[in-house]
Design a protein that fits this description.
It is rod-shaped and about 55 Å long. It is built from 2 helices and no strands. The protein is an all-alpha fold.
């Protein structure tokens, strides 16, 4: 969970720097890719966790 939060924060910071700084558009692109990958990783982890719970 800490890894997901840390990657989301890094993606947000890179996105802000990439959108504000002149000529640093590649940072914005990297931030978007990192954020999408982070959300996909979180979705995979949460879907695997929910499958392990026994039904009552």
């Amino acid at each position: 969970m800490v890894l997901i939060l840390a990657l989301a924060i890094v993606a947000i910071v890179l996105g802000i720097i990439g959108s504000v700084a002149n000529g640093w558009f590649f940072l914005l692109v990297i931030a978007i890719v990192l954020f999408v990958a982070d959300m996909a990783y979180a979705g995979i982890r949460w879907s695997q966790r929910s499958g392990r719970r026994p039904t009552r």
